[in-house]
Amino acid sequence: MPMAFKPRQPVPALELDTLGGARWSLAAQKPEQFTMIVFYRGYHCPVCRKYLTELNGMAAEFEKRGVAVLVASSDTEERARMARDEWGLANLTIGYGLTIDKAREWDLCVSAGRGKTSTGVEEPALFSEPGLFLVRPDGTLYWANLSTMPFARPHFAEITGAIDFVVAKSYPARGEA
Q1: Are strands 67-72 and 34-39 parallel, antiparallel or unpaired?
Q2: CB 79 within 8 A of CB 87
Q3: What does the pLDDT read at residue 4?
Q4: Cα separations (Å) of 71 from 41, 75, 95, 98, 120?
Q5: DSSP E strands: which ranges in the chain?
Q6: CA max distance for the chain
Q7: H or E stretch including 63?
């Protein structure tokens, strides 16, 4: 599926409310290396719970590498708070209220809810599927991974290793041709 934007090109604007009350803006981020945006399906998703719990445990590894991290979904503030509290995500900045239009602008796939998940939580009427983006401090795309399903996401330990390689070798963004 071709993306609407390409590596080395500006990514769409992104501003979201976060738990704790701050408004997060991609344009305001000034990380040493990258901003990593992890879009997750929402509180209803047991795969997201496992994935974000792993990321929460590695937050310091990304910070050490000069990577600012945001996790975001179309969940309401209440559902985002439940995810943070029940999943133990104290080390992550959690954005909520991603609109479906904004999800589509970021090329995220959108799914319709199908009732309760295996954890007994109702899916929202519409929500985005996972996506992970590394954005350079100048607002251009370095790397993206999009999925149509909740399964088989990039491993955070591999991403930290890749960041080490990219920084050490000044490896350029790829896939823009």
Answers
A1: parallel
A2: no
A3: 79
A4: 10, 11, 6, 11, 23
A5: 15-18, 23-25, 34-39, 67-72, 93-96, 110-112, 126-128, 131-135, 141-146
A6: 47
A7: helix 46-64
Q: Which tokens in the block code for residue 60?
A: 């310091």
Would you say the pTM of this structure is higher than 0.90? yes
Q: Concatenated DSSP letters for 150-167?
A: SSSPPPHHHHHHHHHHHH
And the tokens for 112?
């319709």
Dist. CA 42–CA 111, nearest whole Å: 12
> Cβ distance 162 to 147 under 8 Å?
no
Q: What is the pLDDT of residue 177?
A: 80
Q: Which residues of 21-40 are buried (b: 16+ CB within 10 A; e: fewer)?
A: eeebebeebebebbbbbbbb
> Please, what are the domains in the chain?
15-169 (3.40.30.10)
Tens of pLDDT, residue by residue, the chain (177 residues): 567 789 999 999 999 999 989 999 999 999 999 999 999 999 999 999 999 999 999 999 999 999 999 999 999 999 999 999 999 999 999 999 999 999 999 999 999 999 898 888 999 999 999 999 999 999 999 999 999 999 989 999 999 999 999 999 999 999 888
